[in-house]
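Why should sequence recovery work at all? Because a backbone constrains its sequence more than one might expect. Tight turns favour small or flexible residues, buried strands favour hydrophobic ones, and helices have their own preferences. The token representation captures these environments compactly. In the example below, the structure is given first.
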């Protein structure tokens, strides 16, 4: 008789824990669903946009090339950091760019961490100068071709870490990667406009 009572009590205890576990799981599922709905509504209302970096303008101030294969350049590059979010400001950090010609690094550009207010942009004016750089025969040939075509091309690459807070969505982080070519008319230094905007990752 006592043995059957112990078994009955054990079954009641087991059933209680099963129901308690089921209730906890249900509460967690409901919380996850509500959180998902809140995030979705927040996204639809706020429409968060990833901040971008782009080349707004540039000018080749100086280009001197000697028959000995020495290249000297000076240029002005305007980088634009843009934040199209109307609800949050954006932060940029670890920002750096590399300017090169045919794989030969001419200059490395950096920027301290900075913020861009919501729905606005900030321009950075870089004055880039390089002393006489000796070119090998392959690069000398490329300069000769560029002078004949009246268009010279430089490679411009860079990265920046962006972060911004979007209400219920919390803090969002992305890397902006810039990889494009800057083309100029070597005679007057005019920049040939082309799309040069960052991609996020």
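From this structural description, the recovered sequence reads:
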């Amino acid at each position: 008789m006592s043995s059957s009572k112990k078994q009955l009590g054990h079954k009641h205890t087991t059933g209680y824990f099963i129901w308690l576990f089921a209730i906890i799981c249900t509460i967690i599922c409901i919380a996850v669903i509500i959180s998902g709905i809140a995030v979705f509504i927040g996204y639809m209302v706020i429409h968060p946009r990833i901040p971008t970096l782009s080349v707004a303008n540039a000018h080749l101030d100086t280009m001197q090339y000697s028959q000995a294969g020495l290249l000297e350049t000076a240029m002005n590059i305007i980088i634009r950091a843009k934040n199209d979010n109307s609800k949050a400001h954006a932060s940029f950090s670890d920002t750096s760019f590399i300017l090169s010609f045919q794989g030969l690094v001419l200059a490395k550009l950096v920027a301290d961490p900075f913020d861009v207010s919501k729905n606005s942009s900030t321009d950075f004016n870089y004055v880039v100068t390089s002393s006489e750089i000796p070119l090998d025969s392959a690069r000398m040939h490329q300069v000769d071709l560029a002078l004949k075509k009246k268009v010279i091309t430089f490679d411009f690459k860079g990265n920046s870490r962006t972060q911004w807070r979007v209400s219920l969505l919390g803090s969002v982080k992305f890397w902006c990667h810039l990889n494009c070519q800057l083309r100029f008319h070597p005679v007057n230094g005019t920049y040939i406009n082309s799309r040069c905007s960052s991609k996020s990752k």
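A few observations help interpret the result. The mean pLDDT is 84.
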